[in-house]
């Protein structure tokens, strides 16, 4: 009888230790998930800031000069004339591949800029009288859309640098969900 009681006590200890290990493991997993979400959130904020920093360059990238448009039109016409022949032979010249790549890149950038423009316009067109919101919109317009230098902007619009950085961080946090919603 004593042997059976010892086994029961042993089973009890194993069960309790297993439960405690499970609780510790669950707590560590919850902590790891939380840390991962924080890392992902920081990554989204960094990517949002990069989008805003490069907005002006991307917008300028999709604008073609008249000469570029004419060259692309001529090359595109020539490409279409050779299309059937290329399909038959399965060969493309480097010029045609470059043209195709260039057109695709400009088109993808244009789609991306159109999306960003919709987000920015919705953000800017929302009515507000809140001073912080007005300052954030001013940052968006002057710094990211018009491309004013940050140091000049701070000098002309802020008495305290920290206020600018706080407003800028809030702006990025406001826009991030629109750029990276699931």
Runs in which pLDDT lies below 50 for 5 or more consecutive residues are none
> Structural class of the secondary structure composition?
mainly alpha
Order of helices and strands: HHHHHH
Shape: flat
Helix content class: over 70%
Radius of gyration, whole Å = 29 Å
Count of individual helical segments: 6
The CA-CA distance between the termini, in Å, is: 62 Å
Strand percentage: under 5%
The largest pleated sheet is described as: none
Number of beta-strand segments: 0
Mean pLDDT across all residues, rounded? Answer: 80
What's this, in brief?
The protein has 6 helices and no strands.
Explain what you see.
The protein is mostly helical and 182 residues long. The chain has a domain at 1-42. The chain has six helices and no strands. It has helices at 2-61, 66-89, 94-125, 131-145, 150-157, 161-179. Helix 1 crosses helix 4. The chain is flat and about 90 Å long. The termini are far apart. The mean pLDDT is 80.
Secondary structure layout plus pairing:
Layout: H1 2-61, H2 66-89, H3 94-125, H4 131-145, H5 150-157, H6 161-179
Helix pairs in contact: 1-3, 1-4, 1-6, 4-6
Name the descriptors:
182 residues, mainly alpha, flat
């Amino acid at each position: 009888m004593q042997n059976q009681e010892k086994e029961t006590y042993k089973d009890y200890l194993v069960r309790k230790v297993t439960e405690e290990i499970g609780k510790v493991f669950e707590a560590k997993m919850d902590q790891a998930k939380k840390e991962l979400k924080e890392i992902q959130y920081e990554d989204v904020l960094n990517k949002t800031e990069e989008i805003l920093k490069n907005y002006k360059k991307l917008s300028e990238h999709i604008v073609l000069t008249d000469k570029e448009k004419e060259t692309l039109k001529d090359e595109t016409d020539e490409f279409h004339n050779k299309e059937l022949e290329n399909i038959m032979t399965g060969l493309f010249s480097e010029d045609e591949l470059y043209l195709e790549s260039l057109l695709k890149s400009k088109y993808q950038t244009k789609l991306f800029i159109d999306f960003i423009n919709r987000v920015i316009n919705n953000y800017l067109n929302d009515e507000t009288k809140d001073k912080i919101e007005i300052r954030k919109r001013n940052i968006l317009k002057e710094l990211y859309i018009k491309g004013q230098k940050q140091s000049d902007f701070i000098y002309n619009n802020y008495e305290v640098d920290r206020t600018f950085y706080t407003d800028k961080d809030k702006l990025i946090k406001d826009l991030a969900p629109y750029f990276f919603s699931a």
